[in-house]
């Protein structure tokens, strides 16, 4: 096994700059996609528990579709297919005027994919509450909205928040798939450094360390948040 | 119509790609589960060093993006072995080691789901630790966690599409090749999505059925 | 035959067993009673080393349980144990439950193990249930299978850890009957139980535990007629007032 070690290349330009900007893009994709995922995922998850069959059915179909197609295929659908099948003016706009097209597509694709996973946890959280709880609410004359707003969601909240943070880590790792449609995030940059400098070991190690450090940081913050949350029974 | 013809004409090539995806997923799942049983037992061992080492392994792979793991092993495997071994083997090793970390958490939870009393009962009749694992604990643990293992297998099958980044000819790569050669990106990617959906949805339905049966 | 001398056990900072000493001679039936949380279940699990202890010594038939060189599986194979929640292996039939340790520990040939299993099932009145899964049996039947499973190892002594407290009331007697019969045949037994009727009928001695201590250790008649300690008196008055 022969290998030419040179860790200093990581501190040379342009490689250091690449690592920094790659980390920046990774964080930017992850955060934006996570916000979409939590918002859409919560709505879909709640919708799946509603008594209205049609609404619940549509929401369930969303979850099934988005979690049974590989994320990479979904990104390709958003990036290559969507602009071709929407009405032509819109397709033109997407192809020519959409700001930061690769980034935007990655955020939307990753966000809607993760929303399906989050909806599953929101649904499970709400359904794990006893039926007696919502019945007690209805028995006192509360409306459906009031039952969700004042009883189910506050109680389920404690169960649902930890998965939200765990899902951030999933989004964070999955953001590397954005490289397939041309976003130069951290994994892409480490691959590029490896290609240009022939120092693959150093390049991949740098990316690995950055991923692990950020994961550890997020986990630490998560633990603190979870400890502060009121415990509901 | 022309698209349908194109798909039919390219079917042998596409099926080869699908076969590779399924084979990669099946082998990585089998290898990953075997490794994960060992890792889970280490994780649960009272020896702090062993359980710590297993925890480091699991957390390490769980905080890395799979694509980066694939990059790593495409670089490392030929270097360690000293000659090119073919990208399928590099991918297989990457997926096996990566999935083992994910399976470990499932199997560990499965072992913990078997009540402590079962271990006591087995020990009380004089079975050794190994015998009680083999005959009493693991059979029950596997029964409890079969649905989760299968679900993870479906995720693994979807994940095999990531070998696209190293141009190993899995299903998605063969679809892309046909799509680019013929300039039919839209229909070919929609076709790929339908195939993945049909397979994964059907499989998840089967798992759901098993789960309901297990609860009863 | 079973000798516990000055046993101390901690769960972290919690002192669960405090200087407990108990002796069981060959052929003797010892009942251990006491309020829940008194440490009686923990104590009986120390006898075959299922629970580790930090101070004192336990010997079974002259073999030290806590010593580093002791072959615990071999020792355990000689002591039968019956648990509160039966702990039958849910993935195996009744017959396989009784055969597993015979095959794997005693290395008996399968036909011999099965013959022994059928004989014991007949004895506990469950011969027709050999091929069933534990989940197809009632609690009382499961516990009788568990007793047969322990007896299949031809134990020199039997440990019972609250064998009837997870049972519906109408099933308690069918289990107690099997235990009474065993006692009358001269089996050495250590029984943690709240069944005072059983204790009166077959126990030679009763040990009363509270808060991790052996408070009283007396002959059965003496324990019920004239308990020495106030704690035993108040326990008895609470447990017997509805009888």
Written overview of the protein:
The complex is a heterotrimer of chains A (233), B (216) and C (243). By secondary structure, chain A is an all-alpha fold. Chain A has helices spanning 15-49, 53-67, 71-85, 88-97, 101-127, 131-139, 144-174, 186-197, 200-228. Chain A has a domain at 23-183: MetI-like (MetI-like fold), CATH 1.10.3720.10. Chain A is built from 9 helices and no strands. Chain C is of the alpha/beta class and 243 residues long. Chain C is 38% helix and 25% strand. Chain C has helices spanning 40-47, 72-77, 94-104, 110-123, 139-151, 169-184, 196-202, 220-225, 230-240, and strands at 2-11, 14-24, 29-33, 55-60, 63-64, 79-82, 157-161, 188-192, 205-210, 213-219. The radius of gyration of chain C is 18 Å and the shape is globular. Chains in contact: A-B, B-C. The B-C interface holds B 115, 117-118, 120-128, 131, 135-136, 139-140, 143 and C 45, 48, 50, 72-81, 83-85, 87-91, 100-101, 104-106, 146, 149-150, 153, 159.
Proportion of strand residues of chain B: under 5%
Query: In the CATH classification, which architecture of the domain at 22-171 in chain B applies?
Result: Orthogonal Bundle
Number of strands of chain B: 0
Separate helix tally of chain A: 9
Q: Which word captures the global form of chain B?
A: globular
What is the element layout, followed by pairings?
The complex is a heterotrimer of chains A (233), B (216) and C (243).
Chain A: H1 15-49, H2 53-67, H3 71-85, H4 88-97, H5 101-127, H6 131-139, H7 144-174, H8 186-197, H9 200-228
Chain B: H1 2-9, H2 11-44, H3 48-62, H4 66-81, H5 87-113, H6 116-124, H7 129-159, H8 171-182, H9 185-215
Helix pairs in contact in B: 2-3, 2-5, 2-7, 2-8, 3-5, 4-5, 5-7, 6-7, 7-9, 8-9
Chain C: E1 2-11, E2 14-24, E3 29-33, H1 40-47, E4 55-60, E5 63-64, H2 72-77, E6 79-82, H3 94-104, H4 110-123, H5 139-151, E7 157-161, H6 169-184, E8 188-192, H7 196-202, E9 205-210, E10 213-219, H8 220-225, H9 230-240
Helix pairs in contact in C: 3-4, 3-5, 4-5, 5-6
